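Researcher: Next sequence.
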Amino acid sequence: MKQACELTGLSYETLKFYCRSELVPRVHRDARNHRVFDDHNIAWIRSLVCLRRCGLGIAEMKRCVALCLEGEASIPQRREILAEKREELQHRLQDIEDSIAYIDAKEQFYEAVLDGTTPYVSNVLGLEE
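Model: Next structure:
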């Protein structure tokens, strides 16, 4: 488990939770009943990490696992899930870019006020201040 955590970037508790939640299928156990992760398991866990970063919840991840276990026939459903998440990520990215643009504009405004090239005007305090 420790080595798998190091290879995937997951905490021990998270990896254990993923295994208990059946998100990591086909993990073998050794004679002492310890999980033994092969290269396929590690690659799959890395995929789970990416899916989680994409915003999939545990239920959605379980759905993906179930679809993957169905094989090639489930590719259209898996593509649809990824397309929906991609669209959500695009919207989040646009929100982040808009937020950064706002911060950049405010920083420029503040710098201009501080160096005396722009008079200070506040939308909060109003013009009478």
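Model: The beta strands are 28-29, 35-36. The CA atoms of residues 5 and 14 lie 9 Å apart.
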